[in-house]
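Our consortium's second objective concerns turning raw sequence data into structural hypotheses that experimental partners can test. To show how far this objective has progressed, the report includes one record in full. It was chosen at random from the queue rather than selected for favorable results. The single chain below, 122 residues long, was entered without modification.
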Amino acid sequence: MFITLVNIPFNIARHMTAGWALGQATCALANLALTAFVYVSTFTMTAIAVDRYVVILHPLRPRMSVAVGLVVVAVTWVVAVFMSLPFAIFARVSCFVVILSEFTDASNVTDNAGMSRHRLSS
């Protein structure tokens, strides 16, 4: 859900402007958020699986307390953000220009599989 709420608007803006027009800081923040949310999701599912395993293996032991649960959630977020930092640190906004030569026929493009796609002219 976090991925949808945070990253979809950035992706829409990127596609609407045919590039990243939101600056370097927003680029780093978007990469950090996307990666951290994926890690948090994975770590949370792992924690749930471990909890279920312990409950099934030892059904008579007391369950995890609220305090331990909050610590697990906090550690999950801290580790996820820490592991996502390289994606934010090394994210760069690059400008590039595509130059089509006079020898390029953009109306008939062939992909790598050899399938021909024809562009509709307006």
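The partners drew two points from this record. Strands lie at 108-110, 116-118. The two ends are 39 Å apart (CA to CA). Both points have been shared with the crystallography group to help prioritize constructs.
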